[in-house]
Amino acid sequence: DLYFSKIFGEKLAEIVELSPLTWLPLIPALAVANSIDVSRDVVSAASHNAFASSGYFLGTPENFAVCTFAAFVGWTWGWWNFWKLNSIMQMLTPILVKDSQSSCEVQLLPPKYEDDDLLRNFDSSPGIFGWIESQFGEPATNDQERLFGKAGAAGPELYIKSIKFQIWLVISQIVLWGTQIVARDISALTQHADNVGNPDLLVPELMVFGFYVLVSAGQLGLAP
Asked: Where are the transmembrane segments (predicted)?
């Protein structure tokens, strides 16, 4: 869609650029994960005794709770961005239909947002999401901005930032869980390590965090 190509294409560099301060919210999660290693005298996932922490990333309630909450936030956020922008795109896209009188001819109908009734009944800000958007929104100045619901004129800029930080979150999750937990657990299994910290939870931990990594990776495909 030309509208989205314009508003997102012009600020592509902004979407992929991250300030060093962006990583600050990740510090608590890193601290919890690192505490598992530190408490077992493990310096890093590459240490000779790294397997001493395996199994405890799942077996430590506070770590599992933080990771699960972060996963839920990232996935919900990604699906919301996808639904929101896809709904708007459907309203902006002209409709191609076959001519009822001829099987060889087609008609190009105006996009749905040009229909006053459809535009008036279109709601892209349901429930709590509308309340969140209203905290940052501005009054819409044209029909395209009205499609952003409660976000209004601030919608394009708001969703550029929303996509940017959601992508940052899932990439952080993939890197953290993939390198610190999943890769370590796979190594412990393939090497038949006998110094695994919690062997009973090794396979469940690998399955849980492997699933988290896969779903987080899939979230990257939802970005417009």
From this structure: 63-82, 203-223
